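Deliverable D4.2, example record:
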Amino acid sequence: MILVAPAAGSAPPEGFHLTSESFKDPAHRIDAPELKVASGTRTYVVAPVQSRRAAEADGSRSPAAKLDEAIGLAAAIDLNVVGSAVVTLAEIRPSTYIGKGKVDEIKTIVEAEDITLVLMDCALSPVQQRNLERAWGAKVIDRTGLILEIFGRRARTKEGTLQVELAHLNYQKGRLVRSWTHLERQRGGGGFLGGPGETQIESDRRLLQDRIVKIERELEQVKRTRALHRVSRRKVPYPIVALVGYTNAGKSTLFNRLTRADVLAEDMLFATLDPTLRALKLPHGTKAILSDTVGFISELPTMLVAAFRATLEEVLEADVILHVRDISHGDTEAQAADVRGILESLGVEASAERALIEVWNKVDLLDGPAREALLTASRRDGDRRPVVVSAIGGEGIDLLLERIETMVSAGRLTLTVDVPPTDGAGLAWLHDNCDVLRRQTNEDGVTHVTVRVAPARVDQIRRRFGLTLVA
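Output generated by the structure prediction step:
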């Protein structure tokens, strides 16, 4: 929940402090005494961008796209955005991030429009956040806090909830002081002399750290369990295909189209958070497992990348990665660069050995000339040419499935097996454990079956069916 801090200098509820139960019952969380802001909160969005010279130096996306994305993030949790602005910065001020003139200008808007929440689309330090709240008399959250809020609402599984809580606690740890001056009280120590004991804020930080350690242990167990699942899957001849991409690129819609599943797919940022696995049947009978993962975003908080590493490690184990891009978006190139950067941070680098397919989605949103230009660009030479699709309309899906099958079949051998008429179980075994490409039954009842198998399966087929000929 997005929370409103008390006005600067105001006293919190008497006697409020963290206990060991504070992290078990949501009603007793550290922020429980603060006023909870419901959906529909009147919100003002500020997108600070560097001056043109600085922006060109670091390759930042356009200011309009940055502002649109910030408004989209706010809409993802039903905030009522009543105004927005791009603020150009020559330099970042240590005290308030933006300049004093802009602080005063936004203060006037906040008071005139009865704004209760200001979203700063940047990473604020605790000091900057506190100073802006004092200046504007409104709650201020930064990009990291908003993304954590969205993730908290989207998490459905125990694993997802733990990952979000870990990221939130690490974020909250540096913001304990804020306006809560009561946290500096001291409790008496033990012994004959008593002593000063620990301050309340020290006690709360200790409880916070204890909870962080506990969650990290639970997530370590999740990591071990996932590793065991991956070992089990490797014993079954099913390759893994992972969907990755910028948030709202259409991954879940494509996932549903490929697997005929009903995963939540909406036109909003971070509609999918918890990973989903489904069976995928390819054109020539090859079976695979398709994995839908959380969407990426620019300036993704490092604490979230760390917390979700156990989930994102599924991408590391994938035989084929589908990088889904919203090709109709004005900043599609910048979004693709952000995704590649996060993949590289996970150890997934684009190379000749890495089976990666770029999927240019949402072609149905382009008009005639833009569509033709896109199709021409997609016909570039080489195996790494992108596949143009419409996950909504189904255009290009057959071609995408063929490309996936070609990649997952790379390195597999094609064999012809003779199955006698009395070996119905053997024929069923071939269908369950191999890709059956062709089968033909002679007059004597012998079935000639052409299959495609991983090299590790060849000896097993030889032992079971005798003479095997390479087709």
